[in-house]
Design brief:
alpha/beta; eight-stranded mixed sheet; two-stranded antiparallel sheet; about 45% helix; Lysosomal Pro-X carboxypeptidase; glycoprotein; Peptidase_S28; zymogen
Length: about 475
């Protein structure tokens, strides 16, 4: 009996470990391939090519015209998105779909000029959404001709965040290649003169205030507390030690970097406030804002005690697993996301204005200053931003000519402020997920999913089936 109980206990421990691994890993099976792409799709002056990585799974494909589910890769290693887009994997058996994840040029291992890709503008200048979409056109065209049974397959594009923007634009610009798009948390309106720059910060703050007004006030008061404590070397040394920083604070620029890190952390927590443990930007518990706010309870504390509170909240974000030995303010999310490449895109065509006033939001006041932003871009990359380029290329709010797109937005997600929140037409529809954070609907099914995301996925599947039926009917006539 004692041995039996020990064995049962051992099996329970193993089951618990497997459950945790599934929560935090959610590994999916795929084969990795590379396709030779043109560096420049829009001229005949540059003959250079590079290898674009893509992932493919045909476990559920019927090999006879079943649909192709195509993920339009984001600003990062494509494996990160393959592991965090469970919706595609969940519904692939139902649709007998071929699943493909394509990596965005200049991210992951798809570097057109290898280690030199970001060294000179003549190499980096081909990092644009237009070139990336042309990559996807070339890849899909090739695969439909190379894979037996895929010639007449319906192609459905999926994407979340920037990938969602690409999925929507893919359908708009190349409707003969993509028959429909699921664009989740896609801020295609987060551009100059379309979305007010203050809306994003207001929603981040609202997410924390809803959990606890005191929590939001701790963050609001933390900026002045940091300034107060770091006025001298002793204060810099104290904060370095109190926050277990990997590198000591020494200069005003270090303080600016620390504050930028905090802005990113509070924003990221709002983005990934999922109802269950997840490992997208960082390993986090269910409802991470709730857990963080459990530590941020005394907004009227003196500077040092207040900052000690803040650090306890930060620990939930950067060290939930207990594996981190120190806080690295230069690493604010999963290393597979590439802030460096995105900085170039933000300095060219993806100019998204953000501003904060410290009253309607809990951030340090920071007006949007395009001239200063542009000058920084030029100093960093040797380019000046084109703030209206994306709007001119893709239409901004004027997308009435588009068709077969489902835009989904969670109202906890600050990026929803730049999303399409209304039905544009009968075939370009908006699904609102009140309890949803950043592209929650694209994540795998979970017992703790709110009813609104379950309903959204059902509607998405209905649209996908309609697109398949419409496209297939062309070959049945």
């Amino acid at each position: 009996s004692s041995l039996l109980n020990m064995e049962v206990t051992r099996l329970l421990h193993i089951t618990l470990l497997i459950t945790l691994l599934l929560y935090f890993c959610q590994a999916y099976n795929y084969e990795t391939y590379f396709y030779k792409q043109k560096v420049d799709h829009f001229s005949f002056a540059d003959p250079d090519t590079f290898n674009l990585r893509y992932l493919i799974n045909d476990d559920f494909w019927d090999g006879n015209g079943g649909p192709i589910f195509f993920y339009a890769g984001n600003e990062g290693d494509i494996t990160l998105f393959a592991d965090n887009t469970g919706f595609m994997w969940d519904i692939a058996p139902e649709f007998n779909a071929l699943v493909i994840f394509a990596e965005h040029r200049y991210y992951g291992v798809s570097l057109p000029y290898g280690n030199d890709s970001f060294t000179k503008l003549k190499y980096t200048g081909y990092l644009t959404s237009e070139q990336a979409l042309a990559d996807y056109v070339e890849l899909i065209t090739y695969l439909k001709s190379a894979i037996d049974g895929a010639k007449n397959s319906t192609v459905v594009a999926f994407g979340g965040s920037y990938g969602g923007m690409l999925a929507a634009w893919f359908r708009m610009k190349y409707p003969h290649v993509v028959q429909g798009a699921i664009a989740s948390s896609a801020p295609i309106l987060q551009f100059t003169d379309i979305t007010p720059c203050e809306d994003f910060g207001k929603l981040v703050t609202a997410d924390f205030s809803k959990e606890s007004p005191e929590c939001a006030n701790v963050i609001r008061n933390s900026w002045a507390a940091i300034d107060s404590v770091t006025r001298n070397e002793a204060g810099l040394a104290w904060l370095t030690q109190a926050w277990s920083l990997c590198k000591p604070l020494k200069t005003p620029q270090d303080i600016t970097s620390l504050k930028n890190y905090l802005v990113n952390v509070w924003t990221n927590l709002a983005m990934v406030d999922y109802p269950y443990p997840a490992n997208f930007l960082a390993p986090l518990p269910a409802y991470p804002i709730k857990v963080v706010c459990s530590h941020l309870t005394e907004a009227n504390n003196d500077p040092k005690p207040l900052l000690e509170e803040v650090f306890q909240g930060l620990t939930v974000y950067f060290n939930y697993t207990g594996d981190s030995k120190c806080l690295d303010i230069n690493q604010q999310a999963d290393s597979r996301l590439d802030d460096y490449g995105w900085d170039f895109q933000a300095c060219t065509e993806m100019v998204m204005p953000f501003c904060y006033n410290g009253v309607e939001d809990f951030f340090e006041p920071a007006p949007w200053d395009f001239k200063s932003f542009a000058q920084t871009c030029y100093q960093t990359w040797g380019v000046y931003p084109r703030p209206f380029m994306a709007v001119h290329m893709y239409g901004g709010k004027d997308i009435s000519a588009a068709s077969n797109i489902v835009f989904t937005n969670g109202l906890l997600d600050p990026w929803s402020t730049g999303g399409v929140l209304w039905n544009v037409s009968e075939t370009v529809v908006s699904l609102i997920i009140p309890e949803g954070a950043h592209h929650l609907d694209l994540r795998g099914s979970n017992p703790d999913d709110p009813p609104s995301v379950i309903q959204a996925r059902m509607i998405e599947k209905t649209h996908i089936q309609n697109w398949i039926d419409e496209y297939s009917a062309r070959y049945d006539e």
